[in-house]
Design goal:
- By secondary structure, the chain is α+β, with helices and mostly antiparallel strands.
- It has a single domain (21-301), classed as D-Maltodextrin-Binding Protein, domain 2.
- Helices cover 44% and strands 18% of the residues.
- It has helices at residues 2-22, 45-53, 56-59, 75-82, 93-99, 125-133, 145-151, 176-181, 183-202, 204-213, 220-228, 250-265, 282-291, and strands at 32-37, 65-70, 88-92, 108-118, 120-122, 139-140, 159-160, 167-175, 240-246, 298-301.
- The strands form 2 sheets. A 7-stranded mixed beta sheet has the order 2-1-3-8-4-9-10, sandwiched between helices. Strands 6-5-7 form a 3-stranded antiparallel beta sheet, with no helix packed on it.
- α2 packs across α9 (183-202) and α9 packs across α13 (282-291).
- It starts with a helix and ends in a 10-residue tail after the last strand.
- Residues 1-21 and 119-126 have low confidence and may be disordered.
Length: 311
């Protein structure tokens, strides 16, 4: 037993040393970047964690600065990336795909897949007020808005995309000129995001508190059910709410292939084909490898209270 203990301690020391090396700031010149996300959407919550826990300081070159653009909806992030006011942004998978087709304005790449889960159908703030006023009867909506709307008695969850195996996702996007000029810093940000995703899985209550601090009108219990709450039985949802840190594997390639084809069909993008290099997985693969992380990071299971029951 004594010998085994020595080996165990040795392995723990080696693992700790590897983690410390991987978490060192990136080499190179300091970067001064703008990062955009909106906390009223759970796909941006790793951005909240990076900001609140200052994880970026662990991975960006020493002396770097970050200007945070925290908004209520995704369009300012989309436009900020195109205008080079932001170099990094958190977007839903649909606007992210559209953004990759705007290369006459800017070359934007999807560098990481933050989360994938079931689409919610209920029905940001315009939808909520229209439901309240009775101008619409139903709408598609994302978390944490669903949990808030249900908790306030405005509407109920009708069903989820599980009925048709429809998924929704979120993407970490970067300008390609930023990646080319600051490759190690770009990879460092992906490392920070992977650490943030793991933090979300391991510390859901602390994350709920962080998000609620940035969202007037939301309480920590309400945000927590948006993260790990159960759907009502009639919604026909599974027990996995989200998969965090999904790799660019064959499943995701097919998802994006089908999605680009759909957006082309409705004339949202100019071609049914995925733009060359739009799914830029190199940073994610290298970041995960250097951190010793196997993708996906993990899953958020529906283990909490029923969505919409916490106020």
């Amino acid at each position: 037993m004594r010998g085994a203990s020595v080996v165990l301690v040795g392995l723990m020391m080696i693992a700790s040393l590897v983690a410390d090396v991987a978490a060192q700031p990136a080499k190179g010149e300091p970067v001064n970047i703008g990062v955009g996300y909106f906390p009223s959407w759970n796909g941006g919550w790793s951005g909240v964690v990076i900001k609140k826990k200052e994880l970026w300081k662990k991975y960006l070159p020493a002396g770097s600065t970050v200007r945070w653009d925290v908004v209520l909806v995704g369009f300012p992030v989309f436009n900020g990336l195109l205008a080079n006011k932001l170099q990094i942004g958190y977007l839903g998978d649909a606007p992210a795909m559209v953004a990759t087709t705007k290369r006459e304005t800017a070359d934007l790449r999807i560098v990481s897949l933050l989360k994938f889960g079931e689409k919610l159908y209920l029905g940001p703030e315009v939808i909520k007020t229209q439901l309240q006023a009775g101008k619409i009867d139903a709408a598609q909506q994302f978390e944490p808005n669903v949990s808030q709307i249900v908790a306030q008695g405005i509407a109920k969850v009708a069903f989820t995309g599980a009925t048709w195996n429809w998924l929704e996702g979120s993407a970490l996007m970067m300008r390609k000129d930023f990646i080319d000029k600051n490759y190690e810093a770009a990879k460092g940000w992906v490392k920070a995001d992977l650490e943030a995703l793991r933090f979300i899985i391991e510390n859901p209550r602390e994350v709920a508190q962080m998000v609620a601090e940035e969202l007037p009108g939301w309480t920590p219990p309400m945000v927590l059910t948006a993260l790990n709450g159960k759907f009502p039985p009639h919604a026909a949802a599974g027990d996995v709410n989200e998969i965090l840190g999904h790799p660019f594997d064959d499943k995701m390639q097919k998802y994006f292939k089908d999605a680009y084809a759909f957006w082309h069909e409705v004339k949202a993008v100019p071609s049914a084909d995925i733009p060359d290099g739009a799914l830029y997985g190199k940073l994610l693969d290298e970041a995960a490898s250097e951190l010793g992380i196997k993708l996906p990071i993990g899953v958020i299971r529906a283990t909490g209270e029923v969505k919409g029951t916490q106020k």
